[in-house]
Design a protein that fits this description.
The structure holds two protein chains of two kinds. Chain A is of the alpha+beta class. Chain A is 44% helix and 15% strand. A four-stranded antiparallel β-sheet of chain A has the order 2-3-1-4. Chain A is globular. In chain A, 57% of the residues are buried. By secondary structure, chain B is an alpha+beta fold. Chain B folds into two domains: 67 residues, Alpha-Beta Plaits, CATH 3.30.70.20; 142 residues, no CATH class. In chain B, a hairpin with a 4-residue loop joins strand 10 and strand 11. The longest helix of chain B is centred in the middle third of the chain and has 13 residues. Chain B starts with a strand and ends in a 13-residue tail after the last strand. Classes of the chains: A alpha+beta, B alpha+beta. Chains A and B meet through helix 4, strand 4, helix 5, strand 5 and helix 7 of A and strand 6, helix 3, helix 6, strand 14 and strand 15 of B. Strand 5 of chain A pairs antiparallel with strand 14 of chain B, so a sheet runs across the interface.
Chain lengths: 204, 252
Amino acid sequence: MTHTLHRRGEKEELLQDFPMLALVAQRFNEQGARPKLQRIAEIMLKHSDINFGDCRVNKFTTPVEEIKDNLSVVAHVVFRDKESLTACMRELKEADQGISVIVSGCFEAVEECCQKAGIKPHLTEFSLGVHGRTELLPEEPVLEILTMCGHAMVAKNQVTHLLERIRKGKITPEEAGQELAKPCVCGIFNPERAARLLGRLAGV
Amino acid sequence: MRSDPEKCIGCRKCAVYCPMDCITYPARPEGAGGKGKLMAVVDQDECVECGCCLRAQVCPSGALFRPELTWPRNVRAAFSDPTITFKETNVSGRGTEEMKTNDVTGRFKPGMVGFATEMGRPGLGARLRDLDKMAQALAKVGARFEPLNPVTSLVMEDPASGRVKADLLDEKVLSAIIEAEIELDKFPSVLKVIKEVAGEVESVFSLDVICPTRGDEPNPALPLIARAGFQVRINGKTNLGFGRASNQGVKS
């Protein structure tokens, strides 16, 4: 489950894309975890409106309140900037629910946010990139979009299909970004970033 | 996944949602109802049973369905559909909690390196034959596979050798994560093996590394990674350290 680890893109793009998740540890703190996870989700949602999901559904397929009511193991959100991420981290630290929280993104920026929020991180995980027959991969801008769903639920053909519709003026890049967010059941896909990338690819 | 030819109206709405691009629309043969009209056909060899086409809910005639999957085909769904939760871990997705709950579990300790090769990621999928190659090579240099990872418990014939069950080698999955750990001093041999196997696999894989540090010391894995010719990306995951054990009778 390394679904938020391998997002691609230049630093400038990554600085507008920070997935966060809260995860219950099985056999260690799952007893009575639901209200804690729900409290964490409330704080997350106060600072982020980009996406929200629990590995079964996300806010583009299911009402937020319904997702929140059914949280049991994991909650995901995505932040668009360091400021909102820092504010959320600070409030989560104060709330002290005892559930693990993980942030993905540019290390330099996450470190800066941790310092501002008075947090000493526990552990980091590194991505050493992609290996093997990389010549089979889609072109980089499309790959940037696709890797925002680490489980690869977003299909390359859907990106191509939506790009055509954007070029024909039938859909906006923002609407297309939200369409692409639907298959990512975790709720870690960033439709705002996707809209920017789609707009550039479509030349609009 | 399958499409029921009796119900399919050939509207071509489902194919765009297929990450494996394995839904086509040939003309119906004689005897299949409405000769010449298009119908969706899911290539059973390429389909990884991820369920994306079904969850998209775009089929107006209810033609798409997932039949009851039996061994070995059910392994495709287990490693491709993230809504499936493994009973061994109670974690959905394809791996374990790994470093995400390390502040609670203490799974990764200083002096050790945790690493993972996620076969088929990003987005291409992989036959378990690729996983077999990588796992066997890693086992030979002393990698110990994570017992709770479904690759170890479900796919491997023998976790000591990394050998994959023979009847699974041709099964295709969206991705499967080999999770393992090794002593820091043996990590360079792991990186060497990974580089060699990268030239032999039919698909791609993503590589992850976790190396806890003692206090504020620089991460000791980083110079080993650089020496082996790998590049660490500027983005990754950070566990903020908010977790703790709270189950009755359990300590962090």
